[in-house]
Amino acid sequence: MDSPHSTSPHRVSVPRYSYYALSVLTLVNFLNYIDRQVLPAVGPVMQRDLGLTDTEFGAMEAALLLSFTILAPLFGWLGDRYSRTKLMAAAAVIWSLATGVIAWLDKLPIHPRAMHLQVPFFGLIGLSGLAVSLCLVRAVVGVGESSYSTITPALVADYFPIERRATALGVFQAAIPMGFALGFVLGGVLAAYFGWRTAFLIVGLPGLLLAAVVWKLREPKRGAHDHPTAEALESSKPASWWQTTKQVFTTPDWLLSTTGYTAVTFVLGAFATWAAIMLVREKNMSPGAAAIVLGVVILFAGAAGTFGGGWIADRVASKWRNGYYMVCGISSLLGVIPAFLAVTLHRPAFFLPPIFIAVALLFVNNAPFHAILVNSVPPTIRASAVALNIVVIHVCGDVISRFGVGTLSDSIAAGHLTFMHRLAGWAGLDPMREHLTSALLVVPLALFVSAFFFFWGAKRHSGKARTA
């Protein structure tokens, strides 16, 4: 992939409406991640009230990601052919309503039958009828979020020229840490003062109101701001689903960047689901304090990492063809040590600074990765490329970490997986008392994997960028 930066990023004009549309889309994405994160935020209280095991709680998160992932190719196909703004507005309504339903789901007189699943490496695990109901509703939340997250990056790409694209995507992606942060704070505070049910009801309402604004956004022409390269000369009529899928999976930049970001997604999923519970259960913080502390850390570290990552990446890539890859690879590698310290240290004065640093470095990846992603394929198949990316990063990333860390925690607590006991002992942890923390030792290892694939991509594109 040649660097798209044939001109300085400071010389390109952008229509005012593009900034308005970006603001609306970013705000809705902000609400999207508040709705997604409120469950982990109220997790300590909700688990206690409903008697959910770590495995069942992790299964709820996995259910959202599975539906999100399975439906992503469908929404990608639809997004390449139909009105993206209308699809996204409908998506906001779906996930907002489903979020509110969770508040009273346990009050229903009838639930599905309990389930027992044979999971590789972990053996037979069980889910109660209530847990199955919660999983089903979280899956509906995933339906809405899948449509929005699949289509929006391609839409943002069409509002902005290539030279400003990483910065624009950085603004859009900054809603992720901000939504995570406010989701933690709102969920924790509302659960502490009004109960966890109120938290779900309140965070679901704004998405319904903003859906009407998204519905009225003007649809930009696909590829409107792309330079007249060979990609832009592709047929404006999308190919069949199979042809599109084959084209995406045989694009080296798509493969390498997606693999590298899959490992980042694994880490983000593990942290998003289990950090608050770990702080309450094994680092002796109160539920409210844990939620507020995590919210503040994610707000400032995540926003700094996302905005900074986009700004830095556009400037590095204007000089070096592998700039986007290098920014991603370096941030993943630098995150290994703080991630390890964040998990293994026991006093807040010691583990909170590493958490801040690790979160900032994780979110540096967002903007340059998505710039690689949308620039790696022709405009006519961008939504499909994003959709297929979503399938890979979630099925192989945070579906595994959100569910797997919980199952791993229960297995360690039961005295199984002796190799994890030895690893925890080496890290200075008591695996029987700190079984969730011990399970989270997989996080630093995933960051090594991420760095390897991003540096691989950087090696393929070494050299200075072409200038005008």
Task: Report on this structure.
The protein has helices at about 15-50, 55-80, 85-100, 130-160, 160-195, 195-215, 240-250, 250-280, 285-315, 325-335, 335-345, 350-365, 365-375, 380-415, 420-425, 435-440, 440-460, and strands at about 115-120, 125. It is mainly alpha-helical. It has a single domain (about 15-220, about 240-460), classed as Growth Hormone, Chain: A. Helix 1 (about 15-50) packs antiparallel against helix 6 and helix 3 runs antiparallel to helix 6 (about 195-215). It starts with 15 loop residues before the first helix and ends in an 8-residue tail after the last helix. The relative contact order is 0.17. Mean pLDDT is about 80; it is low at about 1-10 and about 230-235.
Provide the descriptors you would attach to this structure in a database record:
single chain; 17 helices; 2% strand; Growth Hormone, Chain: A; disordered N terminus; mainly alpha; two-stranded antiparallel ribbon; 468 residues; globular
